[in-house]
Amino acid sequence: MTERLLPETLDFNGAFPNLSRRLRLGVVGGGRISVMQATAARMTDRWEVVAGALSSDPERARARGAEWFLDPHRCYASFDDMAQAEAARPDGVDAVMITTPNNLHFPAAKVFLDAGIDVICDKPLTNEVAEAKSLVDLTAKTGQVFGVSYVMSCFPMIRQAREIVAERRIGNINQIHVEFLQDWMTPDDAADAPHVKWRLDPKISGPTSCVGDIGTHAAHLASFVSGLEMTDLRAEFHVCGAPKPLEDTVFMFTRFQNDVPGTLMATRLAPGNRGGLRLRIYGSEGGLEWDLEHPEQLKFYRYGESDQVISRGHGHGVSAATERLVRTGRGFPEGFIEAWANLYTEFAMAVAARRDGVDLPDGWVSFPKVAEGAAGVQFIAASVRSNEKGGEWVAI
């Protein structure tokens, strides 16, 4: 008899349910990002990390696996070997997180999908549009769960903002502005760090650096909250600091469905900005503003009325769907790791539902999926085309 993970009766209006067991998670990558994601996944109490391909060197893979407290027999030096071995185990991984450099996202994701294992992958989804479309098609064919780590969409106040827009409480959207400003690449020698070098290598990072890394977060967030697809853009790439093979800064004009105009800026050379992701959406009746460095507050304006600041926390008037993602009461802060945990909670619900044969209602989980990852790759490709044409408007 096949084990059931979700409760027999699900209350889709209440909190996310506990599962009958923790799901088994594999890790492909093993760097700083994977450690953070694994921490968040464990926080949900719905995942345990049981296997990994943490290095292509067998000895280092075992050593890194020991640091993760993994069974030595489940420490792999190849994600191909990992997918084949785990798929054959009765206690094999239910899903895998892919946190490798960009050029390995596609082959790693494909081999796990082919093995029948659900996937959550870092962005950008791939370095090529054709590869991204291939993963969309393969996911549709297999019916598997494929999440993409646009984690900024998993903050409770972002979900509240999305609901406010969908309920037309700011009226018809007339402009969208988003920026992601960081400062960690300001020193001239910043590019010498090992974890930075690959981000500036076109063979690994793809045709962009800043755009593919943080620009895609900004673009996804704008569409996620507004509900509008970005249709056109004009982009200029810049190297504002020490010489680099790829851009460290980008300025864009953007256009969304219904001819809604907008702007997008991203840079890693803005001293004083660490997590400077800011979203502003304005409409015919009001507006919204959100800042990653103050993620628990959402500014909500209604023209001619007193301004509001909505705070994350139980019992503060946020929607039931938003409360599902809240872990503490008002006055007790939550942050970035909790947003990752929200992503892995919703991903767990989808993985469990697929295994149980349960159809989830629309909107019950809203974690970013493979189609959104593919849209991000198309956004990157369009920005490259526009820059190469001297900043001309191009269709995405």
Question: In terms of topology, how is this protein built?
Answer:
Blueprint: E1 23-28, H1 32-43, E2 47-53, H2 58-67, H3 79-88, E3 95-98, H4 105-114, E4 118-121, H5 129-142, E5 146-148, H6 156-166, E6 173-181, H7 194-197, H8 202-205, H9 210-226, E7 230-238, E8 249-256, E9 260-267, E10 276-283, E11 286-291, E12 297-302, E13 308-311, H10 320-323, H11 336-356, H12 370-388, E14 394-395
Parallel strand pairs: 1-2, 1-3, 3-4, 4-5, 6-9
Antiparallel strand pairs: 6-10, 7-8, 7-14, 8-9, 10-11, 11-12, 12-13
Helix pairs in contact: 1-11, 4-5, 5-12, 9-12
Shape: globular
Cα-atom radius of gyration: 21 Å
Low-confidence stretches: none
Give me the strand/helix succession: EHEHHEHEHEHEHHHEEEEEEEHHHE
Walk across the major sheet and give the strand order: 13-12-11-10-6-9-8-7-14
Q: Let me know the largest β-sheet.
A: 9 strands, mixed
Structural class: alpha/beta
What is the tally of helical segments? 12
Counting DSSP E segments of at least 2 residues, the number of strands comes to 14
Give the amount of beta strand, in percent: 15-25%
- Average pLDDT for all residues: 95
Helix content: 25-40%
Distance N to C terminus: 48 Å
